[in-house]
């Protein structure tokens, strides 16, 4: 699912993030649609983490693709082929990979 491109960025952690739809971190994907939705492909090596800012009017859906880890403020467990839905109150969405790493798709909409 992950391929290197101009819309690929590395965070201050070991996370690798690809902007699949819309814009994030100052980068715009080639697939930009008119609805207010963002898709990020996030790859976390073992025990690394990633945090993405969301606003109070956005909903967040996470689909784990590979590996396992922990998501959200409560550090709920997630593994491949599982999903989670968040309705944040202006908080950041946090994820941490387990011992085998974690790849997930982060979907954010208003």
Q: Can you give me a brief rundown of this structure?
A:
The protein is mainly β. It is 0% helix and 59% strand. Strand 7 and strand 8 form a beta hairpin.
List the main descriptive attributes of the protein structure presented here:
mainly beta, two-stranded antiparallel sheet, globular, 0% helix
Outline the structure in words:
Helix content is 0%, strand content 59%. With 110 residues, the protein is mainly beta. The protein is globular. The model has no long low-confidence stretch (mean pLDDT 80).
Q: Can you count the helices?
A: 0
- CA-atom Rg in angstroms: 13 Å
Quaternary status: single chain
Structural class comes to mainly beta
Into which percentage range does the β-strand content fall? over 45%
**Which residues sit in consecutive blocks of at least 5 with pLDDT less than 50?**
none
- The gross shape turns out to be globular
How much helicity do the residues have?
under 10%
Q: What pattern of helices and strands is seen along the backbone?
A: EEEEEEEEEE
**Terminal CA distance:** 25 Å
The overall pLDDT average reads: 80
How many beta-strand elements?
10
């Amino acid at each position: 699912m992950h391929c290197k491109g101009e819309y690929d960025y590395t965070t201050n952690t070991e996370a690798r993030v690809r902007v699949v739809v819309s814009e994030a971190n100052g980068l715009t994907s080639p697939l930009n649609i008119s609805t207010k939705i963002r898709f990020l492909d996030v790859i976390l090596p073992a025990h690394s983490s990633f945090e993405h800012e969301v606003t109070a009017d956005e909903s967040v859906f996470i689909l784990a693709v590979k590996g396992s880890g922990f998501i959200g403020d409560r550090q709920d467990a997630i593994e491949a082929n599982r999903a989670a839905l968040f309705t944040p109150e202006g908080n950041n969405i946090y994820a941490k990979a387990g011992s085998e790493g974690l790849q997930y798709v982060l979907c954010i909409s208003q």
